[in-house]
Specification:
Radius of gyration: 23 Å
CATH topology of the largest domain: Rossmann fold
Shape: globular
Strand content: 5-15%
Largest sheet: 9 strands, mixed
Number of domains: 3
CATH class of the largest domain: Alpha Beta
Number of strands: 13
């Protein structure tokens, strides 16, 4: 008899491998579809397998190569993912007996493979053990060793080397990209406060502790957050603290008119509105209608009324907004290398060839939207990437071509609201954070128009 929970995990991995969905989106969809038959323990185990396999895929494939005479590209997608999820359990999960991982893998192969693949899966899994991971550290080539032991694509490592980072720092970035991310939430001060929310979450059997930013809590051992009554009532927003910091650095004030040009799903947009105490206007743009709806839905849940969400392409100039806005937030599309622990799919979906295309888009958005800023106005440019080509290089190019702008110091903002991040401040010009145990990797720079 096939274990239904493992079969669900396999179907999600297959869907991801075929490019038909991202791990977080596919996982949430399946949980909603099967909410009547899955308990919290089931959801936790499915999440562990999906995120674990997606995170460690390259490393697991190297372990398969140690035992298989058949090349990976010749193994069917179903069988390959049965091997991956079974090996993940054997090598990385101490609480799962090897016998259970092997037997359930073979059972899945009976349904999703043929007679030959059943024997193949059985033979591979019986030979795999935890020492196989240790063997990967015998690799003599330093770049290959980092890649194989941290499951990081070689092109990302080489890009960081080209930017001048030493191998130890790169190794730490790669290791921290595999840490399971903390679940942080932002208190909606329009409806509650931190102490009240802690009590409410405690009644919902959710353990919470203070985050590094005043408006944030870190939740422990929580699944299916969207079904919590406190979430449905709009008492908090799920958001990484690094993402929340962009709104704090912009320092929105009541009655200001602010543009969030790349707003969906609305985490930063709604934080701006909450800081403004629901007084003023936040214009929220996204290029896709369904993503604009996400912003509106989030605003409604949180009780925010000052967000004007519109479908709009931020690269196309709109004359009616010329020098009209007090402040602008540009959290531009990026390669997302700073959020790999949260979105591990990025490692397998992005390529080095994508860099030139993305930096052209980023510069176009910055150059176009900067024209909407009033004289004396302020603009925050941010990404969840760690490549300098997407970050400081964009800023330096923009300043060279737009001498009426200058970099604003943000040390005072950090001292007052985010002391934790002071250590990541570079020349008092911008924040350049590489992923660590507390937060994702990201970049923030504040500009002002003279």
């Amino acid at each position: 008899m096939i274990d239904k929970v493992r079969e669900i995990a396999l179907k999600i991995l297959y869907k991801i491998d075929k490019g038909e969905g991202y791990s977080n989106i596919s996982l949430n969809e399946v949980i909603r579809e099967n909410k009547d038959i899955l308990n919290r323990k089931d959801i936790s185990f499915i999440s562990e397998i999906v995120y674990g396999v997606t995170t460690w895929r390259l490393t697991i494939d190297e372990i398969i190569k140690l035992h298989s005479k058949i090349k990976l590209k010749k193994i069917s997608t179903w069988i390959l993912n049965i091997l991956r999820m079974s090996i993940y359990q054997i090598v990385f999960l101490d609480k799962v007996p090897k016998s259970a991982a092997v037997n359930e893998g073979v059972n899945l192969a009976k349904r999703y493979g043929n007679r030959g693949s059943i024997g193949f899966v059985n033979a591979i899994l019986r030979n795999v053990n935890k020492d196989d991971y240790k063997k990967l550290f015998d690799e003599k080539d330093e770049i290959l060793k980092i890649s194989k032991t941290t499951s990081m694509p070689i092109w990302i490592i080489e890009e960081l080397i080209n930017e001048g980072l030493d191998k130890n720092r790169i190794l730490n970035i790669c290791k921290n990209s595999n840490i399971r991310p903390k679940v942080s939430v932002r208190v909606n001060n329009l409806k509650t406060n931190k102490s009240e929310l802690k009590e409410i979450l405690n009644k919902e059997k959710v353990v919470s502790k203070d985050g590094v930013l005043d408006d944030f809590l870190v939740l422990e051992k929580v699944n299916d957050i969207e079904n919590l009554k406190s979430f449905k009532d709009g008492l908090f927003t799920v958001q990484d603290e690094a993402a929340g910091l962009t709104a704090l650095v912009l320092e929105p004030k009541e009655e200001e008119q602010i543009l969030d040009a790349c707003s969906s799903p609305g985490g930063k947009t709604t934080y701006l509105s909450e800081i403004m105490k629901n007084n003023g206007e936040v214009i929220a743009w996204d290029i896709h209608a369904h993503r604009v709806k996400l912003v509106r839905d989030n605003a409604k849940r949180l009780g925010i009324k000052i967000i004007n969400a519109e479908e709009n392409d931020a690269t196309i100039y709109k004359q009616e907004y010329k020098e009209k806005l007090d402040k602008i937030l540009l959290d531009v599309p990026c390669l997302g290398v700073g959020v790999l622990k949260r979105k591990p799919d990025i490692k397998w979906q992005k390529r080095k060839e994508d860099i030139d295309e993305i930096i052209d888009l980023q510069y176009s958005i910055l150059n176009t939207c900067s024209k909407y800023l009033k004289k004396g106005g302020e603009l925050v440019y941010s990404t969840c990437s760690i490549f300098r080509k997407e970050n400081r290089d964009i800023i330096f190019k923009f300043l060279k071509e737009n001498p009426d702008f200058e970099i604003e110091k943000i040390s005072d903002v950090l001292k007052n609201k985010a002391k934790f991040f002071l250590n990541y401040l570079v020349d008092n010009k911008f924040l350049e954070v590489y992923q660590n145990e507390e937060t994702d990797g990201f970049f923030i720079c504040k500009l002002s128009k003279k």
